[in-house]
Amino acid sequence: MNFVISSDMKKIQMVDLKGQYTKIKEEVDQSVLDVIESTAYINGPKVHEFQKNLENYLGVKHVIPCANGTDALQIAMMGLGLKPGDEVITADFTFAATVEVIALLNLTPVLVDVDPVTFNIDIDAIKKAITPKTKAIVPVHLFGMCANMEAIMEIAEANDLYVIEDNAQGIGATYTYPDGRKVKSGTIGHVASTSFFPSKNLGCYGDGGAIFTNDDDLAHTIRGIVNHGMYVRYHHDVVGVNSRLDSVQAAILDIKLKHLDQYNLARQTAARKYNAAFAGEANIVTPSGLSGCSGICDTCDCHVFHQYTLRILKGDRDELVKTLNENGIPCGVYYPIPLHRQKAYLDTRYKEEDFEITNQLVKEVISLPMHTELDDEQIEFITTTVKNFVNS
Ligand SMILES: *Cc1c(COP(=O)(O)O)cnc(C)c1O
Predict the structure, then answer these.
(1) pTM, 2 dp
(2) Is the CB–ligand 1 distance for residue 138 below 6 Å?
């Protein structure tokens, strides 16, 4: 296939961290230098400032910063006091960190299928998986799209379960209840985790993460756990971990937090343009939100497009990946293997027929370049290349 690329089109990147940094360089550089000068590298005032600002932004009582998003999940589960043998239900179609920490804590992961429209954990599948040993549900706001939290909280309440939101991909998304009430993702469950990995919607320049909760007692417990189980210096009341967000990363995040809504809006704008270009394509399914909306309709913005992920119905997804790469367009397959088929998480209880949707999605999904710096010419080139492939 031949396309004329205008010679001045910016090179297309999956994520353009440099372009984003360039726009806030002065502010970021100064803030980082200030931390270096201050020598308050660990638990410095910047960490506290960022924590407060994130609490205000999210409308949540407690943010507890930690070292990364995987730690955040683990610490949330430790804080809830989950015990070996407790069953924790999570989605089969997600990044492995979610199931990894469940297994690490000797809890029993129970993977369930996802919804074909939102890619998020399937409500009926959760109901079917509940046993007397079930203690928690971990919905993942996959690709930046809020899971159906109202239904999940209802199930949790009826069965006395904890809900831990894995908000690593969904920070800044707004969840709208059927009655119109709006809250931020990560503030609905009993506790939530997020990641500040550089490519996440709110990313730092290294590793970082945080735990959110509205529960004062749980917040207190977790603050001790992240700090070697200490509530009073050199008194170790529980077995904890060492998991900290350093001051340099907090300084960067505090600046980027001010731009988060604008960054998410840039992603949503790019997603709208992608959606418009793919409208009417019979072999392409564009991302969808809850109750059939696009996730970015007039009444809600429940999708912040950490990834922009298509389903390619007929045609060879792997060939499309090749074609895009040949044309200088990076893309990703998130995720190519269902967790229930990963060696580390095999379990004789799993039956292939219980994972019909995930098994289909891993063959069909492709994520296109998505970041805050995409321009119209790039989107036009990407969408034309995809459409030519699926119609050839
Ligand atoms: C990125 C991610 C994590 C892990 O975050 P790290 O900061 O890399 O440890 C966990 N869950 C999901 C869904 C993620 O996307």
Answers:
(1) 0.96
(2) no
